[in-house]
Write a structure and sequence with these properties.
Chain lengths: ~130, ~450
Amino acid sequence: MKKSEKRKLLLIVEDNPLLAGMYKAAFERAGLAVSVATSGKDGLEMLKKEKSDLVLLDILMPEMSGLDVLSKIRSTSGIKGVKVIILTILSDEATKKKAHELGAADFLIKSDLDLSEIVDRVVKHL
Amino acid sequence: VAWLTDRIFFKNGYSSEALLFDITHIMADTIDLEKMQKKVLSAIMGAMKIERGAVLMVEGHKFSDGNAVRFGKNDFKKLDPLFYEKKLRPVYVFDELEEGKLKNSFRDCGVAVAVPVLAEGNFIAVFVFGQKMSGDIYEAQDINFLRVFAKESGIAIHNALSYKKIKEFSATLEKKVEDRTKELRAAHKREIEKAEEVARLKDEFVFIAAHELKTPVAAIRGFIDLISEETKHFPRDVKNSLDSISMASVHLNQLVTDLLEVARNEAGTIKLNMAPHYFRHILEIVLKELNSLINKNKIKIKLHLMSDGPILCDELKLKEVLFNLIGNAIKYNREGGDIHISAFRTPGNGLFIIEVNDTGYGIPHEKQNKVFQKFFRAAAPGTESILGTGLGLFVSRMLVEKMNGSIAFSSVEGRGSTFALTLHCADTRAVNKIIKNN
């Protein structure tokens, strides 16, 4: 128990395996325990099992979008309170507003931030 | 004389004058052809006590289906021999006709009297009457009356017929106009829907293309970042190569962003979110994003903020514009140069002016009229190696104009450039209202 209290658990939901691997490496280097789901559906399953401290959630994914995942999280007992940060390529206001309404803790745009900046912004929320 | 007229005119129990008066009235008052025919028929038949009668209209060289009153289903085509009469008489009486085709056709149809109606010399209709109810023959009074009637009714029937035709024509015309209008409206609607669909597909394509392009760019930048911690172990040329890859990826990312804006503008799908924003806040975010570039080129930023707005603008778009202008001012500056950023309100007209001034290469005079064109690149000496998309100023002007603002510049080659944005201040009362509503 004590060990898991020390190492925070991050769940990355990202359908692009290249990016998923990259973020995983960066966050592990920052000292987090990281698991990766490559679809919204897998993400929800893993979140229920793993009791992650924070979810880093992509939006544009086939079948179930990140916003769908977020809204599902908010209506599922046991995980509805989990902290979620959106990490997407979408920069439009409407998406940002929707994410905010669904209680996203932060909204990060992949292509506008350096990887180190992304890590810093996420770690701040833990 | 009174006795004589009585004998002549009242023999059948009606007054010719009164009947003529009635019929004249009917014809003067009734513009509808069918009503007129019916009324006239019943007036005559009533007065003379005739068992049946009909009005047949002439169309071409045929009788069209007339307005038969109590005539049953007679085949009036049999009356066609009337057309072969050399000169139409005012009244045809069966009893007075010589044996022949015409008399036979009268017989077949049960016609006792026929009164052709002429208008302007043309045969336009014929009134036909059957036997009298009493079985009596037609008297001289009846025949005389019908002779007068035939003469008088021509023009009235002709007018009513014209009126009917005009009415039908006007109804047809109205219907045609209505149908055509409907068709045009439908076609117009289809065009609009098609155009909207094309714009939507274009936007969707641009959106997907931009997303697909940006994802690998994010990966390139991320992996460079990931290995950058190890660069101290790398030889200098490898480090330089990594820096170049990094710069190229930033450039590529900017290019995709700019192209997305241009494509959206051309598809007409740029959506602005106009709201009051304070200038200092936006500027700070932009300067933070440009911080590494500022440090790298050893640029000194000097702020002269006389006013903080609020400005009526789209926050993201204004950031993009400032990012472009200040980015240019850094890139096209000399190492260690200055950038002056001023902001002020113009008294009275509620405009907000932002100026970005650099001490760089400037834009050659002969190229100044092309500054806001697509893919313009300043080629002042010393700027050849600077990476740029050639879209920054084009996109900036486009976005500023979308926000009801304008952009202008002045530049002296070798001494620097000043770009000035003019936007509108957000009315303080309006701002309060928006803040309250949120």
